[in-house]
Design a protein that fits this description.
The chain has eight helices and 15 strands. It is α+β, with helices and mostly antiparallel strands. It folds into three domains: 76 residues, 2-Layer Sandwich (wza like fold); 78 residues, Outer membrane lipoprotein wza fold like (Roll); 115 residues, Outer membrane lipoprotein wza fold like. β6 and β7 form a beta hairpin. InterPro entries: Poly_export (IPR049712), Poly_export_N (IPR003715), Soluble_ligand-bd (IPR019554).
Length: 315
């Protein structure tokens, strides 16, 4: 849906001010006191508007200059050396509907200059949420596209020009990750920032308890783009996994698991630059000794109960 901006054209419902000048004082549109006449017209559903002594002129689908030339052509042999100026006084055909999580949902009128998605959203009061958790959906005819607002800001080439009758819907979808395992707390956790690395994510959930967490067992589960998975696993192994039934999600991404050994300094360095992505699952495994301690505690309680039973029996 991208590409260069199209030249603005007149549409049905637009209100035009047409000023006709004549060189002589006694023409159709001039007098001794004034050499021009201004006429206001509204473009009708058939794309035309009627002018005195001229009749119906097609305006819809034409630029202001093309319409000016059409009126001049219609005035040939009728007016004395005519000239024409056309300006818009209202352009309901050149609007974009902006709704969703913006401060002022409305029909936004477009200027004659080309405007991009972020500029139109700004006219609607701007997003009600941070750009890194705001998604923009553009509907144009039967086509629909969705992008993160932050991406449109960071990558101007994706911030395409809007067209009349486009629909823009802004929605809030906070980026979150899910923490499971031996963390201080578990569950779905919002990023709370534009970017988040693995160590920051671990810190958000209270970090790993040294007495319970296996430093060698930090895992990140996610769906990655096929190119990334192929590079990580090797093209041949990747193809073999697909042949054996590995399937992608609805966006064409494939599951992969990253493992980090936090007992090694290199993993701590990598963790500072490893970006957490929305919908990642971060899992921290328990230290093997935890299960052993649970068994010992269970055994000690069982023996205590048995010992009490023996004492009771002896009495």
């Amino acid at each position: 849906m991208g590409g260069a901006a199209r030249a603005p054209v007149i549409g049905v419902g637009d209100q035009l001010k047409i000023t006709i000048f004549e060189a002589g004082p006694d023409g159709l549109f001039s007098t001794a006191d004034s050499k021009n006449t201004s006429i206001t017209v509204i473009v009708q559903p058939d794309g035309k508007a009627a002018l005195p002594y001229v009749g119906e002129v097609i305006f819809a689908g034409r630029t202001l200059e093309q319409s000016r030339q059409a009126v001049l052509h219609s005035l040939a042999n009728k007016a004395v050396e005519p000239d024409v100026i056309i300006s818009t006084e209202g352009s309901p055909s050149r609007t974009v509907a902006v709704s969703g999580t913006v401060h002022k949902p409305s029909l936004v009128p477009l200027d004659l200059t080309a405007e991009k998605i972020t500029e139109v959203i700004a006219k609607a009061g701007g997003p009600a949420s941070e750009p890194y958790e705001s998604y923009v959906t553009l509907v144009r005819g039967r086509k629909t596209g969705t992008a993160l607002l932050q991406n449109l800001i960071d990558n101007p080439s994706e911030n395409i020009y809007v067209e009349p009758k486009d629909q823009i819907f802004v929605s809030k979808d906070p980026r979150t990750f899910t923490a499971l395992g031996a963390f201080g707390k578990s569950g779905r956790v919002p990023f709370g920032a534009r970017n988040l690395n693995l160590l920051e994510a671990v810190a958000l959930v209270g970090g790993g308890d040294d007495t319970q967490t296996d430093a060698k067992g930090y895992f990140v589960f996610r769906y990655e783009e096929p190119e990334i998975v192929s590079d990580l696993l090797g093209a041949q192994h990747f193809d073999e996994l697909i042949a054996r039934g590995m399937t992608s999600d609805k966006d064409g991404r494939y599951p992969i698991v990253y493992r980090f050994d936090m007992s090694v300094a290199d993993s701590l360095i990598v963790g500072q630059t490893f970006p957490v992505k929305s919908r990642d699952v971060i899992y921290s495994s328990r230290h093997p000794s935890i299960d052993y301690l649970k068994f010992v505690n269970l055994l000690s309680r069982t023996m205590s109960v048995a010992h009490q039973g023996v004492d009771t029996f002896d009495n």
